[in-house]
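Quick one - inputs below.
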Amino acid sequence: MKNTQNTPQHVHFDYSRKERLGLPEAIFCEGKDRSIILSLLQEFNKNTGKSILFTRLSPEIFYSFPSEVQEGVSYHTLSRTAFAFALPAHASKKKVAVVSAGSADAQTAWESSRTLEYLGIDHTMFEDCGVAGLWRIQKALPEIEEHDIVIAVAGLDAALISVLGGLTKKPLLAVPSSVGYGMAKHGETALSSMLVSCSSGISVFNIDNGFGAACAAARILNMFLS
Amino acid sequence: MKNTQNTPQHVHFDYSRKERLGLPEAIFCEGKDRSIILSLLQEFNKNTGKSILFTRLSPEIFYSFPSEVQEGVSYHTLSRTAFAFALPAHASKKKVAVVSAGSADAQTAWESSRTLEYLGIDHTMFEDCGVAGLWRIQKALPEIEEHDIVIAVAGLDAALISVLGGLTKKPLLAVPSSVGYGMAKHGETALSSMLVSCSSGISVFNIDNGFGAACAAARILNMFLS
Amino acid sequence: MKNTQNTPQHVHFDYSRKERLGLPEAIFCEGKDRSIILSLLQEFNKNTGKSILFTRLSPEIFYSFPSEVQEGVSYHTLSRTAFAFALPAHASKKKVAVVSAGSADAQTAWESSRTLEYLGIDHTMFEDCGVAGLWRIQKALPEIEEHDIVIAVAGLDAALISVLGGLTKKPLLAVPSSVGYGMAKHGETALSSMLVSCSSGISVFNIDNGFGAACAAARILNMFLS
Amino acid sequence: MKNTQNTPQHVHFDYSRKERLGLPEAIFCEGKDRSIILSLLQEFNKNTGKSILFTRLSPEIFYSFPSEVQEGVSYHTLSRTAFAFALPAHASKKKVAVVSAGSADAQTAWESSRTLEYLGIDHTMFEDCGVAGLWRIQKALPEIEEHDIVIAVAGLDAALISVLGGLTKKPLLAVPSSVGYGMAKHGETALSSMLVSCSSGISVFNIDNGFGAACAAARILNMFLS
Amino acid sequence: MKNTQNTPQHVHFDYSRKERLGLPEAIFCEGKDRSIILSLLQEFNKNTGKSILFTRLSPEIFYSFPSEVQEGVSYHTLSRTAFAFALPAHASKKKVAVVSAGSADAQTAWESSRTLEYLGIDHTMFEDCGVAGLWRIQKALPEIEEHDIVIAVAGLDAALISVLGGLTKKPLLAVPSSVGYGMAKHGETALSSMLVSCSSGISVFNIDNGFGAACAAARILNMFLS
Amino acid sequence: MKNTQNTPQHVHFDYSRKERLGLPEAIFCEGKDRSIILSLLQEFNKNTGKSILFTRLSPEIFYSFPSEVQEGVSYHTLSRTAFAFALPAHASKKKVAVVSAGSADAQTAWESSRTLEYLGIDHTMFEDCGVAGLWRIQKALPEIEEHDIVIAVAGLDAALISVLGGLTKKPLLAVPSSVGYGMAKHGETALSSMLVSCSSGISVFNIDNGFGAACAAARILNMFLS
Amino acid sequence: MKNTQNTPQHVHFDYSRKERLGLPEAIFCEGKDRSIILSLLQEFNKNTGKSILFTRLSPEIFYSFPSEVQEGVSYHTLSRTAFAFALPAHASKKKVAVVSAGSADAQTAWESSRTLEYLGIDHTMFEDCGVAGLWRIQKALPEIEEHDIVIAVAGLDAALISVLGGLTKKPLLAVPSSVGYGMAKHGETALSSMLVSCSSGISVFNIDNGFGAACAAARILNMFLS
Amino acid sequence: MKNTQNTPQHVHFDYSRKERLGLPEAIFCEGKDRSIILSLLQEFNKNTGKSILFTRLSPEIFYSFPSEVQEGVSYHTLSRTAFAFALPAHASKKKVAVVSAGSADAQTAWESSRTLEYLGIDHTMFEDCGVAGLWRIQKALPEIEEHDIVIAVAGLDAALISVLGGLTKKPLLAVPSSVGYGMAKHGETALSSMLVSCSSGISVFNIDNGFGAACAAARILNMFLS
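Output:
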């Protein structure tokens, strides 16, 4: 047996993924050991000039770190994301609208936002557009339509998705969120609703996966790079 | 053992339920023996002057019966319902709007319609109001609002319910339908979506249970009887 | 990107919903930040003369607030609800019976009660009417029948609903509660039981959604407003 | 390889199980080959003086057999059971009540009845006792109470079980039936309801397993044999 | 509204249930308020001469009570049960064997044991009889067979039940326990396994419901009371 | 009631959707009446110069129609699609690769292909690229990379998606197919696998929804229209 | 688009898989077109000297083929398998025991048997060893122990697996079968039971996947090839 | 009743299982009382010369024990396993490769590793071989192929399993891990993916059951003992 009990658990980073795939290298922090996250934050910060994206990094853990570590990165509490610095502005010059149904969807919507920010992709947030009050999405629509791609986050019955899908011909990337109780089933109802939406051509992602939708937007914008 | 192998299977009718509950006595025919349904149709028809509601009575079975049996009742193919004659016009003088999202919801919507017809309750059908094309429900809304109760039938993600729930203050009775494939899960996604709708105060019924929603409307209209 | 990391998360209230829909504006507090709830309680209290309904507001959070904030609202521990003051008595003069099966259903039943109280709707509680002891519901029935609408809360197998549905012709609004263990499945068994009840015309709501049933009662009572 | 492609598929009967366990040897015919069932019916019939119980034997298959085979056994269409002759009257002299909620539960209730008949156990059928009409079970109760064990078959929400469990102190063996549609989930809702019934000490069996409940009754009656 | 916010939540005891049903009145403590349990323990103890059964009463709560309250009842940590004193020895003079598969099933098995003890029913524990080591059940079998009823508790795949069901003709009451991880699904696999056991006539109860199986044993033993 | 029993069921077409959304108007034929499909085929064919897309149109139904109806459209048996004529070549001049894992995924992959063909979008099929034989996808990769968007269809464990997602930076639209048995769960395992793929930014669609993925490709290509 | 509507659907065989993996190339016929299967049977038969394994080939389809096609392969009705000729005797000289619980498991057990036969692996069938009659497995055990690997097929609660796993130290490959009704859940209960068996080190396969277990045995026997 | 309330809960060890089965006796510590684990650690340690395997022993509990107890065993934090000393080197001289997809799978992979270590079986760890970066498994493959058995641990979509299954003819023992969120469903998606892998002959184990896969490897290696 090569590895022994005392060998630290190595994580092999994929430094070249960004280049190959036009997608971010990211660390999913939930469930990871505090000490591993700390050593990663020390490796990827403003001082070292290296930057990767940290997702699902809880405030409890982040704010327990030494101040110099905290200062080395940009941390965003609501989305639980961190990175040392964003990549240069995306060459495509395209814009993404991030639309959310209710205030409870903010955590996931801001995870999309922060991933786009890290990738240097221009974007705008449109919050509280749920269709129980139909005028909200109708009022926001003209400005949304000035963007090139729409990421929409919704929980519960995700009715926003079908309505929005019928109003825009843009690529629509839909992320279910795990809000609600009872038959909301931790986001499974929203997920299934999005998958069977009567509006056509809607791309769906895992529950609460705001990161994934931003990556899909990046894949689309890769088409505009020469 | 009292009953023997050859004893016919008796069904005890609840002739007084209408009176006690203001609700119809109904026979759910799916899974019942053809011979039992035939004998019931012979008992409850125009000639005998007795009328109950038959639901889930398939055309294959109904049209296999002798013509005099067929002539004794009003049969409606799409909703698979039959009755000898409707009850007198409901004393409440209230009206029910039956709204459906797509053409695939018609079977369930018409089961509601026919149950209301049997109960003598005035009502109007509004079909194809799904919100993938938002103008459809918006166009129908003024006329829907002239009614007192709204029954809405939708499948897939049932997005119509949240939109409609935000547009009307009427009692809204929502019936999921079992249309679609894959994650539509035979109507379970629509059911869950309705139960977690961000619009408040929406009453939900079993999948495809157009009959039940009409009965709930009857319970409400019972309040207007002296 | 318009919004920045430091922008407070705005919540846009729907001040006019009550007027449009005859339904309460409510804040679902579970999962919301303590600081957001505090600022809302400071905005909607006796001093400001504005009142909305707070649901799922835990005692731990409420009693951690400054005493002047606590004094500004009526808080009810069991139902976890708060509001500054109730709306004027409902013009319909109708009464709602809130019936529950067991003591474990109290939290949900009282959420209905408090929502009705906030809406100014007259109502009476009938607790511990579960049908394992059949005489309890039979004894309460005459007084229940003096009301216009029945909200019934039950968990486990929800057998109370079918029994009650067979005894009354009133509108019956059934709320499953998440009591029990094992195959109670956090209320899913009670929910499914209500949806397939052999009593007809029963309206069903999400698990533990006492608020929703009270809103549905309000929708019905809207019919009596001129 | 010992067995070859042409070797008939042998079924080893447990001739001594009745003696050892006081339980019937039974053949579950669903899914079995027509030719295998035929050979078994030829082996266990009036002429050979050997009798075992056949369950789930469809009329289509049974009535396709030669008339002498049909004449050799007692076949019961509704319960889909067959046996050559019943065992002698059970020495316990105890009686079983078989109670069912609705006419759709008859198939399962009669499977219990026929299994008891085969075992020589005295019993009575009480059909259509569903609690949507509460007087039905109340009317039947005095006569049910003259029996020693109660088997109760119910589908949908199985509300009959909790009511009956609160009315009798007899052993109560509850069998869910797969009637209904949508959230009845082929009997799973009835099964879960029975398992979480607020009445205590209720024994539950697999969906549609009328045979199993009768066997459990036999296990209890075994206690009265010396 | 009759009840007010300050009204204590009354629990109506069913003092006569024992007499009517031969079953215990029991308080399920899980999820109940500490103060309610305390007041109940003060009402039902050795000093007051009244005794009911408390189940799912956690050691954390019990041992937080004043010592005079603790001294007033017999508390059993593993089974989390309490009662002031047991009922007189059951007149039937029958004995129950409580068999469990592994040490992780002890909590549920002892809940059965303590319920039987409260009811005055003679019984014996047979622990660690899981069939992965087949000799364990085979060794215990002769002594088990000296009892009249068998309660068997098993988790995981519950293979003990089919083996035991094939070895004894006694009434077999099977309780699934929520041990294990992954596909043990908190006891659902054990429950389903018991329901489809190839041994016939096995009575099944809710997951971890040791109390229920003891009550079912009491229902059977009621048959021996004159 | 406006509509009557004899009124034909009207379907309102959305003739302007193509223009508004850059997406096809399509008729989902499964579950629709043969006579309705026939009348639609008569309205949308080469003679009338109108063309929409028919999906899930079974060969049994299509080939039962009069030959002049059959001749009026291009029907594709494997994908069960029909249309009168394709739209003009898409102005974007982009190309889509449709990749499938096994021969059982062909039906869904070809539904994507035919939808793209109807929309005038250039595309290439790459079948049998499942990763159990890794060289297949590796061999096809260079040619796949010459396309702009990748649609990938896979069933079972859908392992192809994670592998492909790691090899290309193109937009990757993943469609689960309902092949397999047992724990393949009619495509739910493939769907869940795609949603949790460790490759980032993968868009997922409903089970067997080849049409939807093609529409999502169209939404992306809409970005290239001026 | 390279492929056209009229292009036959090619299936690329992996002629070298046997060599590379020591595993059979197999065709899963369920759901495949009759014409495709026919052409494959014509390609792989005694005349062409090429042999692969066909699984899930229904008798209805097989016996509809021309007699010369039928004669070219060895077809086994119960297991629904076909092949032209078996591979030479496996060089390992090891033996496999195929054990099944009940007669309903025969189809899956024989699929294992026939796959082993095709692979030239010596094996013996042990049928009807279910543990409801414990002596059956105990009687067969000595002969089973003369084999090197044990494949065990069981449905329902799969109790045989835990018992057998405790009796032998051989590799134990467990295949759940989809027999039974209700909570047998088409084999999911058996599958879960096997996965959580209290006997250690049991390998589990998909429901009804007798082929897979035989392949796993082949993987083990590959270890004995030089 | 033989046992009394105060009787300590005895656990009967199966000292001879190793001999009979070639499998380890193991204690699953999760959910067990701290005091029971302590007494077991005192019984099985270096001083007493007795060694068994402890699994799922949390660091919180282990490091709360007296230092002499800690010193008496080898504890491994990541895998949460402990044992006094390993068994002698396995006589088979075979080697096992333990392959894992991502760093989140380490806990389960190391449970396999430590079980093999305890059993004296030579093995090597290959971590971070997930197929989103295909070169990782391709780079490791030659060294993996120098081993005799492959244990592979993967979560999420478990795509590694199908790829690896197509690359090696060794016995492949696949363990799903409960990493991920949303539709990862605590490992159920990975489990189902493994069971339906298009690579043949893959043995599957319960979620996170690294111990079980090591035991299955031991069963295979038992074949090489004389």
